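Run log, item B.
One chain of 435 residues. Sequence copied directly from the ordering sheet:
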Amino acid sequence: MGKELIAAVKLKLASMQKIEAAGFTDQSKAAAYFQEKEIILEDIVKTLEAVTGAQEQETEALKATVKSLRDELKNKAANPRELSRRELKYRLGKAIAAAWNKDNATLAELVFTPNLKADNWTNPRDVKWGDKGWNIEKAALGTPMGNMSTNDQYLVNPIYETEIMQDAAKQSVMMPLVRHRPMLGASIFLPTRNRGGVELHWLTAYGQQITGSKPAGAERVELKAYTLAGFIPWYDEFEEDIFVDLGAMFLEEFAEAYGQEFDKQCLLANADPFTGAMKAAQITNITITGGINALTWKHFRDAVYKVPAEERKDCCWFLNETVLNHAVNIEDSTGNPIWRRPTEAMPGILDLYPYHEVSILPQLADIGANTPFAVFMNPKRIQHGDRKGIEIKRFDGTTESMEYGELFLRFRKRDGFLVTRPKDNIVVMKTAPAS
């Protein structure tokens, strides 16, 4: 029993070195990490206290190691190391090269963990690197994860994942605006209420019966998450001097592609696989008769007042910059722009409400008949379900690989999108159908 406990302690002590070397992107992540490590050390101390007998000498040596680690943690917690942008790119590139070459020791050093589960991805916290390779901590001690020579998909270090998603948010209009919900499973049910869900009643006499005071029941809607996969054309050989460029390339390719797809699912998607705000059921439409050139300021004013005042205060416009330019140059009867005089810069509001330019929405020249082109809404009506984890995988099972020898790095991310309470809250501008 004592030998098994000591073996467990050694495994935990080995894991204590994993993330310190990776650094931190901000102070809050460092504080959370060191608090978690302190809990692990407390658990190790309690385990060592239960060891007696022939292993006493080895136990004392381990206690000395724990004390040394505690002192080191206190020093690092007071002065956590932060990664520079260049070092982050270097480590990302080094990990991608290691994943490509199945260099598990380097991946373990950079806290990239194997992902062997199809639906519920492997939790990085459950995976440890030991003398015999990768092990699942929750399984019996020393249980291997299987034949790692056949595995080529790995989860990105959670600290790096946060930085990657911050880059993606800069490429997306909607990501900083919508409501985000963490998801532990494939779906969650959200309660949604209409306005006036709570009924109020005055009691004018002692002992009067309270009737009809039950709030209107909340409607339960399901937010599902699916897996999004992307393929980046990649190099087939890696050298250390290109690790920074490799990491930068992944950051840029992922951020741009994911940011645009995020906006598409929020606004334009039509069961693809989610439904965006401009395609949702029960939205209010403002139809422009006579084509896009017939658009006037009255259409914008009409759209705004279709939304009740208590909802309207948090609403804003979403439209392409070419449509915005057309709108702010609509002229009055004297030939001057209504919202912008000839010497004025582009205003920050559109008929008293903020706007956001979204490049994926239809450009002015592309707006034909029966085409939605702008939406007025509160972006918090869009719920984004975020299942943590970004997976990378060497992928050569493609036609291009067989025919031309072109290889790809595949990334996967799990997300869900749901538009809630669109009725009377979301107004879409569209052109009239062709006559």
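Observations after the first pass:
- The CA atoms of residues 166 and 423 lie 32 Å apart.
- The radius of gyration is 28 Å.
Flagged for discussion on Thursday.
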